[in-house]
Design a protein that fits this description.
The complex is a heterodimer of chains A (391) and B (397). Chain A is an alpha/beta fold. Helix content of chain A is 33%, strand content 21%. In chain A, α4 runs parallel beside α5 and α5 packs antiparallel against α12. Chain B is of the alpha/beta class and 397 residues long. Chain B has two domains: 156 residues, Rossmann fold (3-Layer(aba) Sandwich), CATH 3.40.50.720; 174 residues, Dihydrodipicolinate Reductase, domain 2 (2-Layer Sandwich), CATH 3.30.360. In chain B, 31% of the residues lie in helices and 22% in strands. Chain B has eleven helices and 16 strands. In chain B, α6 crosses α11. The longest helix of chain B is centred in the C-terminal third of the chain and has 19 residues. Classes of the chains: A alpha/beta (391), B alpha/beta (397). At the A-B interface, α1, β2, α8 and α9 of A face α1, β2, β3, α8 and β15 of B.
Chain lengths: 391, 397
C-alpha cells in the first residue's frame, strides 16, 4: 500500500487540501463506483492553523501524524524518507501578494523542501503540486527540472482539464488549428489561471505539438471589443464558446429567457471590465482568453479546426459545491501518478501556463504592452489519449 | 420565407421558469446549439395561454415578437382566427399554473382537454399536423391511451415526455442497442406525480434499447418510508446498482459536517432521507426496473443497470443544468426543443411516443400503489411493446 505525505498551507472545510486529501481518506466517485484508493495518508504538514482548521481531527480519526516540518512529514519522524508519494497543496491560507496581484503561495518552497529530502536520502517519490507550479516562471521551471534531474514524476495543475465536458469532445490529435478562444470568469490570478490551463489542454493537441509562447499581451476595457473588431481574436469563436454557457446574466436573470448575447449587444452592457489575454505561440498559432465577468459564470472554449466549417466548442463542467466532483476527476489522475510513478500528462503544460499567466500579468502591470517571451520556449507533446472524465 | 413551418403553442401559463417559458422562448429567442446561437427555422405564430397571472410574461413576448399573435381559445390559435387549421405544428405545454389536485394527489393539468380541443380542429379541417406534448400525456391512464390511439388513427406525428432522455449525460454514453439488461435502477429526487415521471423516463430511455426492445410492464409496486428501507435491506433491488447510481451524482448531501463528499452509510442515509420512495416494476420479458426518489440525499437523476452476459454495470447521470441555484438557463430544454424542431421539419417523431405512454401509465400505477397502501398493481394495460430508435437522441454535440 502506497504511503502518502500531505503538505499543505491550510486544512479546513472546502479548502483544496480538505477536498483533495479527504478523497484519499474516504474515497471518491470514479467510473460509477465509490472508489477507495489502496493508499494511505501517513503524514501531514500544515503551514497555517487558524481556528476551525481540521488537521488534528483528521489525523486522530484516520490514524496519521501531523508533523511540524515538511522534512519530518516525509520521513514520518524518522531519519529516512518513509513515504511513497507527496500531495502538495499550496492553495488557500493567508499569504502576501506581489505587485502583479499574485498571491505568493509557497508552492516552490514546499517542493524544494521535498527535493532536499529526496537528495539527502537518496530516494525521490512522485509529487502532485496543486494548481500552477509557482507564481514565478523561473521557480516553476526549476521544479519541473528537478523532477527530470532526479527522475521523479511531477503532476500539476487544475481540475478543469480533466473534468467532464459538455459536450464530451477533444481536439482531434495533431489536427491543424486556426484559432482558439476561451471564456472565463473570476478574479486574477486564481481564476484566469484555471481558464488558461483549460485552454492549453485543448490547444496543446494541435499539429506539431506545443512549441511554447512567443509573446503575450493583456488588454482590458473597451480595447477588448476593439481588438475583436480588428480580428485580433475571433468573434465567431466567442459566439461558439458562449453557445455552451448555461449562465448568461442580465435579461436571463430577469425572466429566464435565452439570449443571443453578441447579436443583441447585451454582452457589451453586461461585462464588467473585460480582459483579453492575447497569446502568440512559437509556431504562429494564436489563442485568446477572454475574462467576461458579469456576462456569464462558466468556462467555455471554442476552436477553429482546419477543414471543419463549424467550430468545435465545449463547456468545462464545474460540478456543484460542496461535492465539487471535478476534483475527484483530478484525484484519479493523481492516483495514477502515485501508482505508476509517471504523470499521465506532462507538467510542462502547467509550467507553460504558469509562465504565460505571469507574463500576462506583467503586460497588464506595464501598461498593457505586448511582451515577447523567449523564456517560454516550453516544447512538449500532449498524450494522444484524452485525459478528461469520460467513463 | 413562406415555406417556414408555422407553429402554435397551447399553454397553461407563461411565467419565468415555467415550461412554457423554457420551450416557447427557445423558438422565439433562439438558443445555443452546436457552436452557434441557433434560431429554429420555423415561426411561432400563435399562442394560447390559459392562465394570465401577475407573473405573466406572455404579454411581453407578444409585444416583442409581433409575428406571434395571442388568441383567446385553442381553436382560434390553431386556425389563426379563421375556419380551418392554419399551422404546421403544435406545442401542448400543460405544466405549471393553478389547477386542482385529486384525492390521490395528482395535479389535474388539462393536457387531455387541450389535446381534445386540438383534435376537434384537426377533424373539422380534415388535416392534422405534428404535435409535441410536454411531460406525461395525462394524469389519467384511460385518457392517455385515448390520446395515443387518436394520434395513431389520425396518423399525425406525436412526441411527448421529459427532457431527461435528451439532456447531457456524464459520462456521455447510451445503452448499447440490443444488449441484454437484467436489472435497471434510477436514483433521483422530487415528488410523486411530478419528478417520478422524470426518473421513469430516465430509466425507460435506457432500458428500452435492450435485446428484444420494450415489451411492456406486468406489475408495479411502490415502497415508501419504512417499507422502502425494509425492501432495500432485503435487496428487492440491487444495492450495488443503487450505490453505482449514487456514485454518478454531483449533489450527494454530505453525511458528516466538515466533509464535502463522503459516501453515506445506510444509517446516515436514513437520517438524511425522511421519505424515500421506490416504484418497482417487472417488464413482460422479465426485466426488473426500480425508480427511487431520495429526497434530501441527491438533486440529480442517475441511472445504473446490469448489462451483457458478464453483468457489467453501465451507469451515468442525466445532467440537468438547473436554475436558479446552479445555472441561469434550464438548458436541458435545448435538446428537447431541437428534437421537436426535427419533428416539425420532417413530420416524424425522433423517438417513440410509446415510451411516454408507458411512463404515463407507470406514474399512474405508482400513484395508485401508494394510494392503495403500497399494493402490488397488475398492469395488463401496460403491454406496450416498441423498439427504440437505432440512433441515440440525447445531447452529444
Amino acid at each position: 500500500m502506497k504511503r502518502i505525505a500531505v503538505i499543505t498551507t491550510i486544512y479546513r472545510y472546502l479548502s483544496h487540501a480538505q477536498h483533495f486529501a479527504d478523497r484519499f481518506l474516504v474515497g471518491y466517485p470514479k467510473e460509477g463506483r465509490w472508489h477507495r484508493p489502496d493508499m494511505k495518508v501517513v503524514s501531514l504538514y500544515v503551514d497555517q492553523k487558524p481556528e476551525s482548521e481540521q488537521s488534528e481531527d483528521r489525523a486522530r480519526e484516520f490514524g496519521f501524524t501531523v508533523y511540524p516540518t515538511i522534512a519530518e512529514a516525509l520521513r514520518c519522524g524518522g531519519d529516512k524518507i518513509a513515504v511513497d508519494a507527496v500531495l502538495s497543496i499550496g492553495e488557500h491560507g493567508v499569504y502576501p501578494q506581489n505587485e502583479l496581484s499574485q498571491v505568493l503561495y509557497p508552492r516552490y518552497e514546499f517542493f524544494k523542501e521535498c527535493v532536499k529530502v529526496f537528495e539527502e536520502d537518496g530516494r525521490a517519490v512522485p509529487i502532485f503540486n496543486d494548481k500552477h507550479l509557482s507564481y514565478n516562471f523561473e521557480k516553476a521551471k526549476e521544479m519541473v527540472d528537478d523532477g527530470h534531474r532526479l527522475g521523479f514524476g511531477v503532476l500539476s495543475g487544475s481540475s478543469l482539464p480533466v473534468t467532464w465536458r459538455l459536450p464530451d469532445v477533444d481536439i482531434p490529435y495533431d489536427h491543424e488549428l486556426e484559432g482558439a478562444v476561451m471564456v472565463g470568469v473570476g478574479g486574477s490570478d486564481p481564476m484566469d489561471y484555471h481558464a488558461l490551463e483549460a485552454m492549453q489542454c485543448m490547444i496543446e493537441r494541435r499539429k506539431g505539438g506545443e512549441t511554447g509562447v512567443a509573446a503575450v499581451q493583456l488588454i482590458d476595457g473597451d480595447e477588448v471589443w476593439e481588438a475583436g473588431k480588428d480580428g485580433r481574436w475571433s468573434m465567431e469563436l466567442l459566439e461558439a464558446a458562449l453557445s455552451r454557457s448555461d449562465t448568461p446574466s442580465g435579461l436571463t436573470n430577469e425572466d429566464g429567457r435565452t439570449q443571443n448575447l453578441i447579436g443583441t449587444g447585451e454582452l457589451y452592457k453586461l461585462v464588467d471590465n473585460p480582459a483579453a489575454y492575447l497569446i502568440e505561440f512559437n509556431d504562429g498559432f494564436k489563442a485568446t482568453l477572454l475574462m467576461l465577468n458579469g456576462a456569464v459564470g462558466d468556462y467555455c472554449f471554442a476552436a477553429k479546426l482546419r477543414d471543419h466549417p463549424v467550430p468545435i466548442s465545449t463547456q468545462f463542467f464545474l460540478t456543484p459545491t460542496p461535492n465539487v466532483t471535478y476534483s475527484a476527476c483530478l484525484i484519479a489522475k493523481i492516483e495514477e501518478l502515485y501508482e505508476t510513478g509517471i504523470a499521465p500528462y506532462p507538467a510542462e503544460r502547467t509550467l507553460l501556463v504558469s509562465g504565460t499567466l505571469e507574463s500576462c500579468l506583467k503586460s497588464r502591470h506595464q501598461g498593457h504592452v505586448r511582451l515577447e517571451t523567449p523564456h517560454l520556449n516550453v516544447e512538449y507533446r500532449a498524450p494522444k489519449d484524452s485525459q478528461h472524465a469520460r467513463r | 420565407m413562406d415555406n417556414r413551418p408555422k407553429i402554435a403553442a397551447i399553454t397553461t401559463i407563461y411565467h419565468k421558469y415555467a415550461h412554457t417559458q423554457h420551450i416557447v422562448d427557445r423558438f422565439l429567442e433562439g438558443y445555443g446549439w452546436n457552436s452557434r446561437h441557433h434560431y429554429p427555422p420555423m415561426d411561432l405564430v400563435s399562442l394560447y395561454v390559459e392562465q394570465v397571472k401577475d407573473n405573466d410574461i406572455s404579454k411581453d413576448r407578444l409585444e416583442r415578437f409581433p409575428t406571434m399573435k395571442g388568441y383567446p381559445t385553442i381553436a382560434e390559435a390553431l386556425t389563426l382566427g379563421g375556419e380551418e387549421l392554419a399551422v404546421d405544428g403544435v406545442l401542448l405545454i400543460g405544466e405549471h399554473g393553478e389547477y386542482p389536485s385529486n384525492d390521490k394527489g395528482q395535479r389535474l393539468y388539462p393536457r387531455y382537454e387541450h389535446f381534445m380541443e386540438m383534435v376537434e380542429v384537426f377533424q373539422k379541417s380534415g388535416r392534422s399536423v405534428p404535435v409535441f406534448l410536454d411531460k406525461h400525456l395525462s394524469w389519467n391512464w384511460d385518457w392517455a391511451q385515448e390520446m395515443y390511439d387518436i394520434s395513431q388513427s389520425m396518423g399525425f406525428a406525436f412526441m411527448a415526455g421529459s427532457s431527461l432522455p435528451v439532456t447531457w449525460r456524464t459520462p456521455s454514453i447510451d445503452m448499447p442497442l440490443g444488449t441484454s439488461v437484467s436489472e435497471g435502477v434510477c436514483v433521483g429526487y422530487g415528488g410523486v406525480d411530478s419528478y417520478d415521471f422524470h426518473a421513469l423516463e430516465t430509466l425507460q430511455c435506457m432500458v428500452e434499447r435492450r435485446e428484444g426492445g420494450e415489451s411492456g410492464v406486468k406489475w408495479l409496486q411502490a415502497y415508501r418510508g419504512e417499507s422502502f428501507w425494509t425492501a432495500h435491506h432485503e435487496k428487492l433491488w440491487s444495492r450495488e446498482l443503487f450505490e453505482s447510481a449514487l456514485s454518478r451524482s454531483h449533489t450527494l448531501t454530505p453525511s458528516r459536517p466538515g466533509f464535502n463528499n463522503p459516501f453515506p452509510t445506510l444509517d446516515e442515509m436514513r437520517e438524511i432521507v425522511k421519505d424515500p420512495i421506490a416504484y418497482q416494476y417487472e417488464h413482460n420479458d422479465g426485466l426488473k426496473s426500480t425508480m427511487i426518489l431520495m429526497n434530501g440525499l441527491v438533486q440529480d437523476f442517475n441511472f445504473a443497470a446490469y448489462i451483457g452476459s458478464n453483468q457489467d454495470i453501465l451507469s451515468t447521470q442525466m445532467y440537468l443544468p438547473m436554475p436558479p441555484a446552479r445555472t441561469t438557463l434550464a438548458n436541458f430544454f435545448s435538446p428537447l426543443v431541437n428534437n421537436i424542431e426535427k419533428m416539425f421539419l420532417s413530420g416524424e417523431a425522433t423517438y417513440p411516443v410509446e415510451r411516454t405512454l408507458l411512463t404515463t401509465g407507470l406514474v399512474a400505477a405508482g400513484v395508485d400503489s401508494l394510494f392503495d397502501d403500497e399494493a402490488k398493481i397488475d398492469t395488463p394495460h401496460l403491454d406496450i411493446a416498441y423498439q427504440a430508435t437505432e440512433d441515440s437522441t440525447f445531447w452529444r454535440t
